[in-house]
Amino acid sequence: MRGGGLLVAGTTSDAGKSVVTAGICRWLVRRGVKVAPFKAQNMSLNSFVTRGGAEIGRAQAMQAQAARVEPSALMNPVLLKPGGDRSSQVVLMGKPVGEMSARGFFGGSGPTAQPRSGGASPGRTPHDGRQQLLGTVLECLAELRGTYDAVICEGAGSPAEINLRRTDIVNMGIARAARLPVVVVGDIDRGGVFASFFGTTALLSPEDQALIAGYVVNKFRGDVSLLEPGLDMLHGLTGRRTYGVLPYQHGLGIDEEDGLRVSMRGTVRESVVAPPHGEDLLRVAVCAIPLMSNFTDVDALAAEPGVVVRFVDRPEELADADLVVIPGTRGTVKALAWLRERGLADALARRAAEGRPVLGICGGFQVLGELIEDDVESRTGVVEGLGLLPVRVRFAAEKTLARPVGEALGEHVEGYEIHHGVAEVLGGEAFISDDNGHSLDGCRVGEVWGTHWHGSLESDGFRRAFLREVARAAGRRFVPAPDTSFAALREEQLDRLGDLIEEHADTEGLLKLIECGTPSGLPFVPPGAP
Questions:
Q1: Which active-site residues does the annotation give?
Q2: Sign for the pseudo-dihedral over CA of 137, 142, 148, 152
Q3: What's the average pLDDT block by block, 10 residues per block, for the chain (530 residues)?
């Protein structure tokens, strides 16, 4: 097999496309197939930095891990990062190229982008811009298919978004251009899955329908035999088979694209909470700030036995928290205003005065400082921060994208940086240093901590040392478990996804699709695209 491919589409957003794609990748690599994930266009505030310094969606980074390959910009050539006001930052091949309105991006009138200083517009007109993007994603897909035995592509939303079909480059647009077979995933837990499968197919043009090979039912509860009459009728109505009925399982998922769920949430939310290693629990409150990004940073905390993580938006919810985390955001100034409007800013100031732990990550670190000068992200100029750390932040046109390594609390720590804000630290203690003790990033004053490094809490030794500091300051008899490995937990989760495909999908049928493409002679389901 060389250059095989498959597109995993969905009846809706959050139908399970990311999970199924990751599961297929893990199942294939365990069979000895050299496989890579691909998503032409992603819209997400949760992103990751490759070793080559490219920014891509976290879901694609985790799918690459499922495939046991190094993530690259080829796997997610277009990333849209919403910034409010109906606009998004466009990240092309891992680098930001400008801000674009939704109307401009999806083919309306007006300019396609408003590039920052040094940025380049994806195109001069909506049509030209979309054609250029389609060319880019097809080149990336072709390069992956020339390198790997199989490429498992993930769609976005639904392929039957008929208002967007003309400008689609991620669902049937890429499937048509690259002649990819398509399986459609439906979440039966939401209800209406048969209508969704039928309607999705019937709203596509004959040319698009010819690539729809069949369906995958996701999150089924109960006896599969009770579902089989419906699957038979669906086959009779559409001429297409179902390639798997995946059971509902708690705690399955990969890093979420958006939303308020902890992607390692099975450890603390959808299964029995693991008992603490010491005598006490630790309670972590995460401020659900606007345009929250990379909230997956708290997954490693949630994976610790005895650590309970919850998202909050009211000051009274901080009262019993042993640690408050202010996560990253694509709108630092907007998040700062929100914290003040909600009364959370005052609650954070009281915590700091009382010596109770607060951690700010990336944008959360920036709001803790004294001053923010932003002529790039919000273009609001100079704004006063919360003043809890002696830090001044100036937003630069150039985005920092890095994979740094250092030491903190006597432990090795790794992370990744995605930010326009440049911090000038004017006092306090260094948070993260190099081997010689020179400050690399962040700041600490008392029990208030701040860092630009995402993912640092995934470093097991550092996370345990930090939680010991939090427990001491909070007066809790909490002891971090000595053997929690976040990397091992993630691998275990990815293996569970591979098991899900291997045990509950028609793997031989999927292999045939990947190798040979969509079966010929599939019937047209009227009425088709209007």
A1: 362, 454
A2: positive
A3: 91 94 98 98 94 96 97 97 83 91 53 37 50 91 97 96 92 96 96 96 98 97 94 98 94 57 39 73 96 92 94 95 97 96 97 97 98 92 97 96 97 97 96 93 97 98 98 96 94 95 98 97 94
